[in-house]
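Example 237, ligand 6-phosphogluconic acid.
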Amino acid sequence: MVVPAIEVFAPDELAAAAAARLSDEIVARGRSRIALAGGNTPRPIYEALAQSSRIDWSAVHLFWGDERCVPPDHASSNYRMVRETLIERLKGPIHIHRIAGELPPSDAAAAYARALGDEPLDIVLLGMGDDGHTASLFPSMADLGATGPAVIRGTAPSEPRERVTLSLATINRARLVVFVIAGAAKAPRVREVLDQIQNDAPVLPSAKVQPVSGRLLWLLDTSAAAELNPRRDRKHG
Ligand code: 6PG
């Protein structure tokens, strides 16, 4: 199993630290294909990334890890969240490959798979729900796409239920997978997911994120890391 490198930061430092790490990785790569996470945790990260003067955004191709099946201007749209926190704040051109949430889910998934192509993503940024889901790969889903299509449909336990998401296989082909997890509510699940990885018994979707040849990095705040053991869990920071 791939055990994540874990770095822990004070709650008010996590977003800046994550943005700095992502900037380092993007600058080091030059041309980068990046899949961004949805939800709320990444918002300040994207706002900080928009301030970075180091990144040549014209060499960046933005993808999404998942999307809710809603129009791009819907309040629940992950595309809208990234547009507001990052895209609208950038001056130069950037390549956007959004998931068309306004289309029927199967059509959106097929179109996104075509846009994604066969090349592995350079970076996949993920969050984790307090149920251990990541992207729109939920514990209730029988098939997380460990094999097969690059993009699959997901079903969330709460609205908006219809989702389109990178498959587990696509996430695991990435060169770098970064989880950013914050808040005390996530601490028990962070412990459980890490236990599943350390015991080679992955059950929860977040535990099944196991890069085939890439790196796995968890950036946590101290609240989300509260149940980790600094020595046993190779916690840095
Ligand atoms: C989504 C995300 C999802 C998110 C987690 C954590 O579409 O909601 O892709 O996987 O990362 O639910 O969300 P928070 O960051 O809001 O806790």
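Summary: Residues 70 and 85 are 19 Å apart (CA to CA).
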